[in-house]
Amino acid sequence: MTAPLPGDFALTRIRGLAGAFVGAGQWFIGDGAPVHHALVYIGGGYVVQAMPGGAEMIPMEDASPVVAWSTGRIPLTAAQRVTVAEEATNLVGTPYSFLDYASIGLAHLGLRPRWLRDYVASTGHMICSQLVDEVYRRARVDLFDDDRIPGDVTPGDLWRLIK
């Protein structure tokens, strides 16, 4: 594998209790994957990731160990790469919401009420995989062509996209 380029996303495993909790939730909704978290490489050794305290920009070496990169699997133009990196940076500070996990889980189970979907969409909060999907959408790159609404994305969905 080559080194990641600005605009590529990575999938990671979360260790400890948090990783076990996320993995159990993914298993429960039938979305088991060997990854729990997603982040975007913005260049210069930095990544942007959604976290419970809000989206943050950190040095790549401070992120969870990467399991897989999108490098070479999602074709991006140079302009799209710049836009993905800029939009990820613009989302630093975006609030996080555990309710988004519940909404996505209920959607996977076919049980999500419309009011919950609409409420979650209106908050602007993002979990990690939603952040990845959103910055790509802003760069006019649709990662999924299966009629899902923007943001109905888990780390497992991103895993299956690049594997």
Low-confidence segments: none
What's the tally of helices?
Answer: 6
**Subunit organisation of the chains:** single chain
Describe the global form: globular
In the CATH hierarchy, what is the class? Alpha Beta
* Tally of domains: 1
Instruction: Tell how many strands the DSSP assignment holds.
Output: 5
Order of helices and strands: EHEEEEHHHHH
Roughly what is the average pLDDT, rounded to an integer? Answer: 91
Mind telling me which CATH architecture this is?
Alpha-Beta Complex
What is the CATH fold-level name? endopeptidase fold (from Nostoc punctiforme)
Strand content: 5-15%
Helix share, percent: 40-55%
Major sheet: 5 strands, antiparallel
* Secondary-structure-derived class: alpha+beta
Taking the alpha carbons of the first and last residues, their distance comes to 13 Å
Widest beta sheet: strand line-up: 4-3-2-1-5
Radius of gyration: 15 Å
Question: How are the elements arranged and paired?
Answer:
Layout lengths: L8 E4 L3 H13 L8 E7 L2 E4 L6 E4 L6 E4 L8 H13 L7 H11 L5 H10 L4 H11 L16 H8 L1
Antiparallel strand pairs: 1-2, 1-5, 2-3, 3-4
Helix pairs in contact: 2-5
Describe this entry's structure for a reader:
The structure is a single chain. The chain is of the alpha+beta class and 163 residues long. The protein has a single domain, classed as endopeptidase fold (from Nostoc punctiforme) (Alpha-Beta Complex), CATH 3.90.1720. 40% of the residues lie in helices and 14% in strands. The protein contains six helices and five strands; from the N terminus they run E-H-E-E-E-E-H-H-H-H-H. It has helices at 16-28, 78-90, 98-108, 114-123, 128-138, 155-162; strands at 9-12, 37-43, 46-49, 56-59, 66-69. The longest helix has 13 residues, at 16-28. The radius of gyration is 15 Å and the shape is globular. The model has no long low-confidence stretch (mean pLDDT 91).
